[in-house]
Amino acid sequence: MRKDGTPASVSGHPVEKMFLCFETKPLVATLLALTLVMVIWNLQPYYENLISATNRCSASTSGATESLPIRSENVGAGLTPLAEKNLVKPSPPADPNKRTFQVYGNAAALFVQMGAYRGGPQTFAVVGLASKPIHVFGKPWYKCEWIPNNGNSSIKAKAYKMLPDWGYGRVYTVVVVNCTFSSNPNADNSGGKLVLYAYYGESPRKYEKFTAMEEAPGSYNESQYSPPYKYEYLYCGSSLYGNLNAIPLKLFWK
């Protein structure tokens, strides 16, 4: 009995071990698998945070390098408006009930030349139109200069103006500028040109300069300015009465 029982117990022991091995291995494997899954599950947010942090760091460094010159440009560009803002004061809001007139440019010309002639050995006259508001509200004046063709120095003389047709509500008025020199500027008959300086006001800085007339060499004839004269009357002004005729003017002044 004992001999039969003992081998059975001995022979059954390896089988039980095999069954126990087959029963515990899946359990251990399952536990290991669950443990790995839990570990990976818990570590996933950490890796995501780590990756996002590295991406943010790289993005911030690259953004800083790219934004540095932009900031410098912005700072450099922003300095000038600040200086301009400090210099320019904001204007008060306009009153809608107040009408203002904005002025641009010149309302009328300073001088419109119509002609020029020699009135005598030392006298010249320049006839033209001028802005009436300038003569009403300002003090324009004129200066003459003779520039000879022989290379000598120029001769200057202060001129005086005449306003023969003042009024009539026009924007322009007739102006006759008389230039009288101390001596004949073209005594040697070499020719030259008469230059007129027209000033806007009392200041000599703002003016207009133009050539009023020219005399060719040999064109001066002194006999024309001694009696008997070629013309009896000289009219300087605008044609207020239509077409001018010498006969009515002669009868009018007689």
TrEMBL record:
GO terms for cellular component: membrane. It comes from the Eukaryota. It is found in: Membrane. The chain crosses the membrane at residues 27-47. Its main location: membrane. Keywords: Membrane, Transmembrane, Transmembrane helix. This is Uncharacterized protein. It comes from Forsythia ovata.
